[in-house]
Design a protein that fits this description.
Layout (H helix, E strand, L loop, with lengths): L2 E2 L7 E4 L5 H13 L1 E7 L5 H12 L3 E5 L2 E7 L10 E2 L4 H10 L6 E5 L10 H9 L3 E4 L8 E4 L5 E5 L6 H9 L7 E5 L6 H13 L5 E3 L3 E4 L9 E3 L4 H14 L2 E4 L13 H8 L2 E5 L2 E5 L7 E3 L7 H10 L3 E5 L11 H11 L3 E5 L2 E5 L7 E2 L5 H10 L7 E2 L12 H6 L2
Parallel strand pairs: 2-15, 3-14, 6-7, 10-11, 18-19, 22-23
Antiparallel strand pairs: 1-23, 3-5, 4-5, 7-9, 8-9, 11-13, 12-13, 15-17, 16-17, 19-21, 20-21
Helix pairs in contact: 1-2, 1-6, 3-5, 4-5, 5-6, 7-9, 7-11, 9-10, 9-11
């Protein structure tokens, strides 16, 4: 049943949002690798994070999830054997991180997921794990899941190109401190999604891990370290916040997110700065981060540091004056859907001219009309195109439940607008 969106003039809202998916994944991993009990507060309960938690439980970690608080009893980096395959749904983060974490276990682990997850590339990570002494192979030999991982992590040196996913690097950063010889990681090209690596390093530091880095080219993790258990509060999800800031931008309204600031390490927390370039007012105060909408104009912007928000920006671009040129996001073709193709196709249904480039999109602003939006089982397509329905009648979102992947309560929050 499609979700029909009703137009709304000048939305006004002050919202306190659920915790960050990126931080929740990472805090779960670090707490499970620690010895003793950690308490994670304001954790995000969503499909992806629950898949990570269930997998860590299979590996022997104690997971007691009550509301938005998770008590995690860690295994000090030593997993139990798992006889059956570990199923990770369509969660790319879970697959990439746990492929590396499985190298710390006893025996062999098989990790698998949905058909779409089993089309998403993993070969570069498998190669890097091999360089660090781990047997990690793609079952079908195509560099994609399912993957079979056998322990034997020794450490040493590994190389990545950085062009497809920053999650490969984050995965190695998690296990490097527990490798007997430590781990030195060289990045040979331009690293995509850099802020997510900063998040990983922030969480590692918070859980007692030391490291050395040279920008985004070289990372060194001394071996023989221990993750330390702790209490850890998770801030709001900036990716989720983007849809509500976009609603303010599009309707000339005003939306404040109380539990986020521009100082956040999440790359997506910089999205209001892009909205400012498009003509919005931005205010960061102790009360939260506020966007005040205004007439929108097209922009040229490299979205490499906030790729998940390309669909959100693309929807706003449809209503802006002039062209919007989005660059730096070729890797979006390997997400839950081919997001460049999906966004261009659905904007076309709205009557908007949008074309793919090698590394992004060019969108010509115009006068969008209502349409039924196909979501490709992709939560970000569903949530971003819902925003268009606040401005024009006739927008309906197919498969609205796909938002459960990252934001199960999205539609309840959306109604508050």
């Amino acid at each position: 049943m499609a979700q029909i969106i009703k137009p709304c003039e000048q939305v006004q809202a002050t919202l306190t949002l659920p915790g960050s998916k990126s931080y929740t994944h990472r805090a779960l991993m670090a707490a499970a690798l620690a010895g003793g009990e950690s308490v994670l507060t304001n954790a995000l309960a969503a499909e992806d994070t629950e898949l990570t938690a269930a997998a860590l439980k299979r590996l022997g970690a104690g997971i007691d999830w009550q509301g938005t608080t998770i008590r995690v009893t860690g295994r000090s980096g030593r997993w139990l054997p798992a006889r059956l395959p570990i199923y990770l749904g369509n969660s790319g983060t879970s697959m990439r991180f746990l492929t590396a974490l499985a190298a710390l276990g006893e025996g062999e682990y098989l990790l698998t997921g949905t058909d779409r997850l089993c089309q998403r590339p993993l070969g570069e990570l498998l190669e890097a794990l091999g360089q660090a002494g781990v047997q990690a192979v793609s079952e079908r030999g195509d560099g994609c899941p399912p993957v079979r991982v056998t322990g034997g992590l020794t450490g040493g040196k590994a190389q990545l190109s950085g062009a497809i996913s920053s999650q490969y690097l984050s995965a190695l950063l998690f296990i490097g401190p527990l490798a007997p010889a430590g781990l030195k990681i060289g990045i040979t090209g331009e690293l995509v999604s850099r802020p997510y690596v900063d998040l990983t390093l922030e969480v590692l530091g918070d859980f007692g891990i030391s490291y050395y880095r040279e920008g985004y080219r070289y990372f060194e993790l001394p071996g023989g370290q221990c993750y330390l258990p702790r209490e850890y509060e998770i801030e709001a999800d900036a990716s989720s916040a983007s849809y509500f800031w976009a609603a303010a931008a599009l309707t000339g309204g005003r939306v404040t997110i109380t539990n986020l600031s521009l100082e956040s390490s999440q790359g997506d927390a910089a999205f209001p700065e892009v909205l400012g370039r498009m003509g919005c007012g931005i205010e960061s105060t102790p009360a939260g981060l506020t966007v005040q909408g205004g007439p929108l104009r097209g922009v040229t912007v490299d979205m490499a540091t906030m790729p998940d928000l390309v669909p959100t920006l693309a929807v706003l671009a449809a209503f802006a004056t002039g062209d919007t040129v989005i660059t730096g996001v070729a890797h979006l073709r390997h997400k839950e859907s081919d997001r460049l193709a999906a966004v261009a196709a659905e904007l076309g249904k709205l009557g908007i001219e949008a074309r793919e480039t090698d590394d992004g999109l060019v969108i010509r602003g115009g006068a969008p009309q209502g349409a039924v939006i196909h979501t490709y089982s992709d939560h970000r397509i569903a949530m971003s195109f819902a925003v268009a329905g606040l401005k024009i009648p006739g927008v309906a979102i197919e498969d609205p439940e796909c938002v459960a992947k990252s934001f199960p309560d999205f539609w309840q929050f959306f109604k508050q607008l």
